[in-house]
Specification:
globular, 18 strands, four-stranded antiparallel sheet, about 190 residues, about 50% strand, mainly beta
């Protein structure tokens, strides 16, 4: 997938055949600033400013209604591992969870003290990690929308990225001084900086 930019507008998302490198005859969303692909490759999220839309990759058709209407620009988005839930984060200091099949919101807003700049689902899909502009990494129960325990790190404004290990037990965060590994969801530091 690629997002093409021209002038000050994004001119859509295009699919490419990974084996041949040739473009497929489908493109999505005439104004897409960024995109996310579900783990099975069946769904595409194209987002721009405060709005996002989900597309069926095979047919090129929209799925449900527009989702992820925030009060500020969307900063990042991610599909759950099973593709049934979508998380969108925004400069409006919230993360919202959505049903991908319908585009309807799931549960309550996940409120943060500052803009949210990263989200990641645990591989089992039951927990969501978020990185806020204050640098803290927070854990959330996807089913209830409630926070779990204390932040994984003390506030560190250099925190930029996070990811889970495949066994769901370890989370990785990046900082200006290197990488750190954390036990999930307890927040116990395992090692680092690496």
């Amino acid at each position: 997938l690629t997002a093409n930019r021209g002038q000050d507008l994004w001119n859509g998302v295009r699919l490419w055949d990974a084996a041949t490198g040739k473009p497929l005859d489908r493109s999505f969303s005439s104004l897409a600033a960024d995109f996310a692909l579900s783990a099975d490759g069946a769904l595409l999220l194209a987002r721009r400013r405060q709005e996002a839309r989900i597309w069926d990759v095979t047919t090129g058709a929209l799925v449900g209604e527009a989702v992820a209407v925030h009060h500020g620009p969307i900063t990042v988005s991610a599909f759950s591992p099973d593709g049934k839930t979508l998380a969108t984060a925004s400069q409006d200091q919230t993360v919202r969870l959505w049903e991908t099949a319908t585009g309807k919101p799931r549960g309550t807003l996940l409120d943060h003290p500052a803009a949210v700049r990263e989200v990641a689902f645990r591989p089992d899909g039951r927990l969501l990690l978020t990185v806020c502009a204050d640098g803290a990494v927070r854990s959330w129960d996807v089913a209830t929308g409630q926070p779990i325990g204390r932040p994984l790190t003390q506030p560190d404004r250099s925190t930029r990225f996070l990811a889970f290990g495949p066994d769901s037990k370890v989370a990785l965060t990046t900082h200006s001084d290197g990488l750190r590994l954390w036990e999930s969801p307890t927040g116990r530091l395992i090692g680092g900086p690496l």
